[in-house]
Design a protein that fits this description.
- This protein folds into 2 domains: 98 residues, NE0471 N-terminal domain-like, CATH 3.30.2020.40; 52 residues, no CATH class.
- The protein is 33% helix and 25% strand.
- It is built from 6 helices and 11 strands.
- Strand 2 and strand 3 form a beta hairpin.
- The relative contact order is 0.07.
């Protein structure tokens, strides 16, 4: 293993101090059984109240286990020994309560919630004509279609291709593909030409 120089160590310490100055730090953490939330008090005077059921690994924890939350020095993480769960304060402050899969599951569950308010909003949206239709096609097809319309006004003809929205121009010099910002001729009288 390569040894570090004094300059590299000094630079790493400086980066650590800068990071510590910009990231939130917890001074205390506790479980509030009345509201079923984890309360994290930050060094800057702010606090975070997190619903226990949203934190990965804490849904099945007992109130006695939840009360044994600890703040790791220097206040960058909170952990429980039983269950073996921990979170960085930065991730909690950013609204990240577990792995990507956990967060995706929370999002799906939130979108599936049915309430009278949601139903009323859906009915009102339907009365206005419903959700707007999704736009189809991509930028390449739109550019190709614009090129076709422009050349049609100039009297040129185009043939359709099955190559995903790319159309080919028919002319005396061969076939050319119209793509986003570039035309490439595909064989013109025995020789290959490329035009940009």
């Amino acid at each position: 293993m390569a040894s570090l120089t004094n300059t590299e160590i000094t630079a790493a310490r400086l980066r650590g101090r800068q990071r510590a100055a910009n990231e939130p730090h917890a001074v205390s953490a506790r479980y509030d059984a009345r509201t079923d939330r984890i309360i994290v008090e930050l060094a800057d005077g702010l606090g975070i109240a997190l619903p226990r059921h949203k934190l990965q690994g804490l849904r099945d924890a007992t109130p006695q286990q939840l009360k044994r939350v600890q703040v790791l020095p220097p206040g960058t993480a909170i952990v429980w020994d039983e269950p073996d769960v921990g979170f960085t304060v930065t991730s909690l402050a950013s609204g990240i309560f577990g792995t990507k899969e956990w967060m995706a599951a929370l999002g799906r569950a939130g979108g599936a919630v049915k309430s009278e308010r949601k139903a009323a909003a859906s009915r009102a949206n339907g009365a206005l004509g419903g959700r707007p239709r999704k736009q189809t096609g991509d930028a390449t097809k739109l550019v190709a279609d614009a090129a076709i319309l422009e050349s049609m006004s100039a009297g040129r003809t185009w043939k359709s291709s099955s190559a995903g929205g790319v159309r080919k121009k028919a002319g005396a010099g061969g076939m050319r593909k119209a793509t986003a910002g570039r035309r490439t001729s595909v064989k013109s009288k025995g020789r290959r030409r490329t035009r940009r």
